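Customer ticket, subject: "Can you confirm the structure for Gluconokinase?"

Message body: Hello, I'm evaluating your service for our small team and ran a test protein. I'd like someone to confirm that this is what the system normally returns, since I don't have a reference to compare against.
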Amino acid sequence: LGWKFYDADDYHPLENKKKMAEGIPLNDEDRIPWLCALHDILRREDASRQDAILACSALKKMYRHVLTSGASAIESNQPKQPGENPALKILFVHLDGPMDIIAGRLEKRRGHFMPPELLKSQFDTLEPPSAPENFITVSLEKSLPEIVLEIESAILRG
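Agent reply: Thanks for trying us out. I re-ran your input and got the following:
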């Protein structure tokens, strides 16, 4: 697609990486500043009219809301003030698959700070996207080329 690519894991603060490396799941307090920083990156790209892809485990609806709206998504449920930035238009891709397939892929990953033992906590935290969120669900049981094609097709459809 020729789009910029960001891996959200590259933007975790050192404290989050240490916590995960020790097998301790992140909580909302750990994730919110990280998600706000990711929102800022996406906002910057949007402002420069640059399309981008962000690989990110936005496990909860609130996390996805922070990615689209920034810190204002968690401060309150007050209506937006005039002049505030509108929410970013993001297509969320929910890569869905059984825990054993994902665990097998995590076992093959080398040099990553998140150990496979934290996978269950991610499944426990997961709130799959639902309407009115802008999302598609893609099965991880498909081949990589099929997954990529399905995502590209959804992006090109708008």
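A couple of notes from the result: The chain has seven helices and four strands. Residues 4-157 form a domain with the Rossmann fold fold (CATH 3.40.50.300). Feel free to reply with more questions.
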